[in-house]
Design brief:
The protein has one helix at about 20-40. The protein has a domain at about 15-45. It has one helix and no strands. The longest helix has 21 residues, at about 20-40. It has about 50 residues and is mainly α.
């Protein structure tokens, strides 16, 4: 990626919509929750309190 960017960002994030940002964050939340579960940890619930 070094050939494309110094910051790690490819493209124009400012062109994204709020809906697209929410979809990305939802995917990241799910992915991290699966990783934490595999490690025997628990992720935060919707309200941000530990389960």
């Amino acid at each position: 990626m070094d050939a494309y960017t110094d910051s790690g960002v490819i493209g124009y994030p400012s062109y994204g919509t709020a809906g697209e940002a929410k979809a990305v964050l939802a995917t990241l939340k799910e992915t991290f929750a699966e990783g934490l579960e595999a490690l025997g940890e628990r992720a935060d619930d919707e309200e941000g309190a530990a389960r």
